[in-house]
Amino acid sequence: MRRARPTRAAENRVARRRFLLTASAGLCAALRRSTRAAPAVFGEEEVSAERFRFRDGVQTRTLVARVLIEAADGGVLLESRDQRYWVVQPDELLERRAADAPFAYFDAKSLGAALQREAAEAGVRPPFDVVATRRYVICTNAGSRYAEWCGALFERLMAGFTTHWRSRVLRLHRPPAPLPAIVLADRSEFDRYAETLVGRLDPNVHGFYSPVTNRMVLYDLTASPNEPPARSWADITRKLAADPFNISTVVHEATHQIAFNSGMHRRLADTPPWLVEGMAMYFETPDLNSRNGWRTIGRPNPWRLRPFLAAARRGRILPLEDFVTAQEVFADPQTAPLAYAQAWALTYFLIKTARNDMLRYLRTLSRYAPLIERSDEQKRKDFTAAFGTDFAALQRSFLAYMSKLAMR
After folding, report:
1. Distance between CA 94 and CA 267 in Å, rounded?
2. Fewer beta carbons under 10 A from the terminal one: N or C of the chain?
3. 102: preceding bond cis by omega (within 30 degrees)
4. Which range is least confidently modeled, 32-36, 88-92, 234-238, 344-348?
5. How many Cβ atoms from other residues are within 10 Å of residue 211's Cβ?
């Protein structure tokens, strides 16, 4: 019998975001009086870069960055050339001066070197290979073959994602720089690295994406002390196909990274968790057979459908009026599995039955500013502007649709 889907990295991600928002309350208040804000994406125009020196806990950092938001009191949200975000409070800032050249992200070679340094500082066992694809830079100590296989998977997923959401209403864009990923040799290496970046994770978590660092971190799911290593792409595919649940978690995190770097979501914005997680789960159904497409996008997700329907029959799902603003249910290990199932179900239902409304809703949420908390009333207003104010009628349609889906 297939085990229930465990609580995963996204719950930790919600908790980290809430901690960041709370810890940065002074900056958040000042941001409401923001004196300068940079666009989410820049194209051909030059963007100013500055050199910052600031205290980061017990250490001092010096880096070149662009200012995303500058508050009236001098607090800043920065993005460095390696795609990390930094919140710097006024009393932490030691020096600030203009850089010698406009802002530019690291190229693939420089980003790979930065990822190698990070892995070494985290105590990950060398040697490190760097595998670069068209849109990804992957640092790995699992061997280049597995990293190349992952890179091909990510490229196909990104192509499928952008094609699926191509629309005049929601204008997505290509990531402005290669996306960073770290693929580690085994579970122990993964746990060691995760401890330095996000803290201890649930043993069943197979990967995570951090909006703060923009890193996706995974490990070799084919590695086993009792089996020889995979020797070819076909061997990797065969091993992973034996448990598609595991690879779906990797696809989940990769979808998060794509959504946060293509304009669908904004990093550190107060986007409702049900939508962030529901969108990732919409793409979870893996396609391991195609070499140049992603034919399984939008198929019913069996790991989510079954628990959702079981809970719905017992009357245990949250009313939609409450669910569209809910946060704590995604962070609590006791309630998270059902919250995730309901998030997938609601996302699936709205995409399949009200796609244009969903596109308008996504466009509204894509404009949320980083670090600014939005009230439940504001979030509910954004939802009803897209899908109507009659939550009771929407819930009836939602449950009826999902019940019919189970009978197909």
Report:
1. 26
2. N
3. no
4. 32-36
5. 23
